[in-house]
Amino acid sequence: MNGKTILVTGAAGFIGSNLCKRLLNETNATVVGIDNVNDYYGVNIKKYRLHELNGYDHFVFYKEDISNKEFMHSLFEKYAFDVVVNLAAQAGVRYSISNPDAYIQSNLIGFYNILEECRHSYDGGKQGVQHLVYASSSSVYGSNKKIPYSTDDKVDNPVSLYAATKKSNELMAHAYSKLYNIPSTGLRFFTVYGPAGRPDMAYFGFTNKLKNNETIKIFNYGNCQRDFTYIDDIVEGIVRVMQKAPDKATGEDGLPVPPYKVYNIGNNQPENLLEFVDILQQELINAGVLPEDYDFEAHKELVPMQPGDVPVTYADTTPLEEDFGFKPSTSLRDGLRAFAKWYKEFYK
């Protein structure tokens, strides 16, 4: 990555900010970040993440939206990006049920703009973008009964608009890889958590409610299983993938064989939601967020499944391991301990 110019969209987001920090700490790459800093969840935590990045002299930030075609064109004109990592997206399954416009604008139009700029980066014989890496999601598997989820599985039955937009991203990237020989890699993330994470995620929301002496709702009567993946493992996976684009090749028809890959990044070890909440409670007590005599049983309620949710997520990470020698391995307890310590400090 040394000497490269890298675009990271969604740079104020959970994964984006951590990726930027890793690149800035370990390389001399110029990292250009873009984020619209919307208020889908509280902007204070986004400002906190950006504040951590602003001290680096080879980091440039733009508060803009990837759906702004003119701005994206001017950005690609100004910087000859070597690698583009698209993490900007309207996230969240349940929010997509009540606010579909946001998903079309960011996840479809925004991603289309990025694909178009990658395509035109080769104009005039220029070297162009060497690798487009983009966020997909475990949500694309929908209510797939076969587990663990493999990237070879058919994923034609999304159960939320969010999942549909992420599957669309994979299809759009494939078309552009085929037509314009753009090396692209999609990453299906599985329930990412950790310090300075997204407040709309269950573990963060549970923590806020328990701290405020409110009752938490545990869906599907606690029978959900999630392949919780710690943020450092996600970033490690992205960095490894960034450095090796899919190979370009010519098919028998004389046309490009699309330089296109999709990988799961998950912990390959689904955890029961009730056990997860129990470990979270223990670590919140250890960190001093909750008192030692906290009555956890009095603050939980088991409720049915909600629309758009799935009962289990479980990643088959074999291809990632085979191609990059990497498999996420941070234990749930270690990850939640790091989150609880950060939470105590941040809200002190």
Question: What features would you describe in this structure?
Answer:
This protein is α/β, with parallel strands linked by helices and 348 residues long. The chain has a single domain, classed as Rossmann fold. The protein is 39% helix and 16% strand. The chain has helices at residues 14-26, 43-53, 69-78, 95-98, 100-120, 161-180, 202-211, 231-242, 273-286, 318-324, 332-346; strands at residues 5-9, 30-35, 59-63, 83-86, 131-137, 184-189, 192-193, 216-218, 225-226, 229-230, 249-250, 256-257, 260-265, 271-272, 300-302. The strands form five sheets. A seven-stranded parallel β-sheet has the order 3-2-1-4-5-6-13, with helices on both faces. Helix 1 (14-26) runs parallel beside helix 2 and helix 5 (100-120) runs parallel beside helix 6. The model has no long low-confidence stretch (mean pLDDT 93).
From the structure above, extract its key features:
single chain, 348 residues, alpha/beta, Rossmann fold, 7-stranded parallel beta sheet, two-stranded parallel ribbon, 11 helices, 15 strands, globular, Epimerase_deHydtase, NAD, NAD(P)-bd_dom_sf
List the topology elements.
Elements: E1 5-9, H1 14-26, E2 30-35, H2 43-53, E3 59-63, H3 69-78, E4 83-86, H4 95-98, H5 100-120, E5 131-137, H6 161-180, E6 184-189, E7 192-193, H7 202-211, E8 216-218, E9 225-226, E10 229-230, H8 231-242, E11 249-250, E12 256-257, E13 260-265, E14 271-272, H9 273-286, E15 300-302, H10 318-324, H11 332-346
Parallel strand pairs: 1-2, 1-4, 2-3, 4-5, 5-6, 6-13, 7-10, 8-15
Antiparallel strand pairs: 9-14, 11-12
Helix pairs in contact: 1-2, 1-8, 3-5, 5-6, 9-11
